[in-house]
């Protein structure tokens, strides 16, 4: 890569600021981080910066502003929308927050934990557990995802039904803004009405207006009871009825309500060597129900759930049900749910869509959208599974058996995605429920987003990042030539 | 008032748009609304507009943009910071949302209610109750406060400990922006990560970047059980210890934890004709505890709370306690709490401050701040009462007995407020916990706010309201001459 005079001067200043440990231009050091973990997006960068403190981040961002160097912030590089991957111009600096991985304080009494951005989610879980607390957000990538990335993308996961997304966990936040100034909002104030809630603006902004450097997160008392159930259902509309029934009966203890169609479960059972079906017979739809409580023990919670499910069965709301008799069996049920994507990959190419519609409309959406896609794109198979309780499913479309991997995704696959996003938008839903916009969906967002909302986003972006150096090409759709006139 | 040519042309166009019912320039019609309900702020306006629909609001705001007419939106005129009162230039139009008072839908199954901005809080409470639901936010002004105003100021109240402020209740939001475009975010999506969360930006923005016209609010199942307790305590630090104890023991059912010092209770007992002290003897501090449950009935909840308080007494965490034996007695306890301000008014002038610090630090703050104020301003008396569970108290300073009402507030009173806000800021707290900035605190916010946060607020305001016509003079501190150079 050729480096121009301006970049050379910037790199000199950055090296002076960050030292040898904090800056590298070595290709071998850069390569693991310039491609996203799924290998879908690839780019290049003039250097990888790894500051050790918020002050170093601030000074580096100030340098970037002075030298007009674009910045791509990165946490665990486990995002789903290419939001942490630089473009291929090779003009950006990759700013890793991974060195800033200290838990600064953990106060069980107050239920608060202050973390630097680079703390890995699983590390936080373990630290909280040691103090008989828990951090109520989890997801598949917990072993690599960082707190900063999770906040910047407002991550979801499997406990959102009860505890909300990352936004609901953030009590305070510190970020470095485009001019290198530090927004210091770490103090947790339960009530604070001093003007616009800037913290909320920064959460989910994917590094486009500020770089999250630390957060104050809420903790809950550790759960003492857990009950997990696998349910056989005749239909997806029946799943919604059961959801409402269980919500009323289990109240606050209901933490997750996931749905899995029969063929997804079959693929998983084929894929996992020693997996067994939870129920004696197959059912058109399955629901996975998770309850947690800090008040009851597992035996009491299971008994309560058993009574509720027995009532549901009597009312004709389900076909069959089994409650996990111990933690191991709970994990077995969740392993079936969590293996869907891996099992699907073994079947060939697929287009994956993380979408939401209002909870009440999700069954009808699934029933309408799957045949519409399958009819429009013959040979494909539509699959919807996931967080019914949040109105959020992963809507996957599997390629026909004769599709050529790599080629299909770029041709028919792209048309399918556009079609899915069109449908979701018609249903008043979101083309990104929990993964963010990143670079993956920025085009579709520009095409389908409400022009008024897009206008606000562009205005706020221009106001807070006037030079356009903060994670360029992500989240904020460009104005098309026809519009800008 | 003299009207210039531009204003005359605007009023003609506005009258054509809104009709006779929707626009008045009659002084008698305007007077009730150009002064805030406490009579602290007064201004004038060229007209009072009362549009009947979101489209009419949008068209009116567009007209205002075309004719450069400042807009002051207003709901129930029950705000605490003068945010809905025009300045005295007489150039603004007062935009009342009160005619838009329809509950558009109320879905008990989904737990959602779509309201126009002018719906009065108490009306919403009653509508929800009819369907065995409840809206979990309440406050003293519920008989006049409108949903639009409550959202625009992110109102709090007495159930924030458990249910959060207004921000936590809003599932979707519609607003008219400065250019007259309509931001349509009414659809409730539990997960939606399409860029910045603009809804969050509009909540609490006090009409300075958009006018809330409708919201989609969450409802909860009606509470079937209620238990209220009045507690006698030796100290405010003891109140915090009891709070943590009760939080752990009562879990999700704890909805309110209010504190009242002895002399506040005495004033209330003097002020209310037939009030009786809840406990046999006086205590230095009192706590009012409220528990609600949708699962247990009142008898069961009272029994549980009784056991918890008996344990606390054994552990030496309280001096005395009484649990309300019925709804009537619960209301009696709350009436004592809610009469503090009225009782205080009978004692003479006082400066009132709605402030917050981190929950854990509130006792120490109170213990430090009261003597500091009383020593600096001899003859005054510092009083702190309210939402200890939210780290938010109403910090009032009563005038010396010889103070001249009206005069004292403008001289010493103002100095006292500055001093209180200085202290709060030193403690990392907020000069507005739940009342907003409005015009009342805009100067102190400019003086004490974090310059980085103020810079962001000014940039966002300028980006979304480039002509500066949206509720000018509220929330956004002007840049001082010394800064702007």
UniProtKB/TrEMBL annotation, chains A, B:
Record-level GO BP terms: respiratory electron transport chain
One Pfam family from the record: FAD_binding_4
Domain FAD-binding PCMH-type intervals: 41-222
GO MF terms, alphabetically ordered: catalytic activity; FAD binding
Entry keywords, A to Z: FAD, Flavoprotein
Cofactor: FAD
PANTHER family the record matches: BLL6224 PROTEIN, D-2-HYDROXYGLUTARATE DEHYDROGENASE, MITOCHONDRIAL
Family in the record: Belongs to the FAD-binding oxidoreductase/transferase type 4 family.
Protein name (record): FAD-binding oxidoreductase
């Amino acid at each position: 890569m050729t480096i121009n005079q301006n970049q050379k001067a910037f790199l000199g200043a950055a090296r002076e600021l960050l030292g040898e440990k904090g800056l590298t231009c070595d290709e071998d050091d850069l390569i693991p981080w310039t491609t996203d973990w799924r290998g879908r997006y690839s780019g290049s960068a003039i250097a990888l910066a790894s500051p050790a403190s918020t002050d170093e981040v601030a000074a580096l961002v100030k340098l970037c502003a002075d030298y007009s160097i674009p910045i791509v912030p990165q946490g665990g590089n486990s995002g789903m929308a290419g939001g942490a991957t630089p473009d291929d111009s090779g003009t950006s600096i990759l700013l890793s927050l991974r060195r800033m991985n200290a838990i600064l304080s953990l106060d069980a009494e107050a239920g608060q934990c202050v973390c630097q951005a680079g703390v890995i989610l699983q590390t936080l879980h373990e630290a909280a557990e040691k103090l008989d607390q828990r951090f109520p957000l989890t997801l598949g990538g917990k072993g690599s995802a960082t707190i900063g990335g999770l906040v910047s993308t407002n991550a979801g996961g499997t406990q959102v039904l009860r505890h909300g997304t990352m936004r609901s966990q953030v009590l305070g936040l510190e970020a470095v803004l485009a001019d290198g100034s530090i927004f210091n909002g770490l103090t947790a104030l339960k009530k604070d009405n001093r003007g616009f809630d800037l913290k909320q603006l920064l959460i989910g902004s994917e590094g486009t207006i500020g770089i999250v450097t630390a957060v104050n997160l809420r903790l809950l008392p550790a759960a003492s009871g857990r009950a997990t159930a696998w349910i056989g259902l005749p239909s997806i509309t029946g799943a919604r009825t059961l959801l409402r029934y269980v919500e009323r009966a289990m109240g606050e203890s209901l933490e997750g309500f996931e749905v899995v169609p029969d063929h997804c479960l079959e693929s998983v059972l084929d894929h996992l060597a020693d997996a067994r079906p939870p129920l004696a017979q197959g059912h058109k739809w399955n629901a996975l129900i998770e309850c947690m409580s800090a008040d009851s023990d597992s035996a009491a919670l299971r008994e309560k759930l058993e009574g509720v499910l027995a009532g549901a069965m009597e009312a004709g709301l389900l076909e069959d049900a089994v409650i996990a008799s111990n933690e191991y069996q709970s994990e077995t049920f969740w392993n079936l749910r969590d293996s869907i994507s891996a099992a699907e990959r073994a079947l060939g190419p697929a287009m994956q869509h993380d979408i939401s519609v209002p909870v009440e409309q999700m069954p009808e959406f699934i029933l309408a959208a799957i045949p519409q896609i399958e009819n429009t794109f013959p040979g494909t198979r539509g699959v919807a599974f996931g967080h019914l309780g949040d109105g959020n499913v992963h809507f996957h479309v599997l390629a026909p058996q004769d599709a050529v991997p790599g080629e299909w995704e770029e041709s028919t696959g792209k048309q399918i995605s556009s079609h899915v996003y069109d449908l979701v938008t018609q249903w008043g839903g979101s083309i990104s429920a929990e993964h963010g916009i990143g670079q993956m969906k920025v085009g579709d967002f520009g095409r389908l987003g409400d022009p008024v909302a897009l206008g606000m986003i562009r205005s706020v972006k221009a106001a807070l990042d006037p030079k356009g150096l903060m994670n360029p090409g992500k989240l904020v759709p460009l104005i098309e030539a026809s519009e800008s006139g």
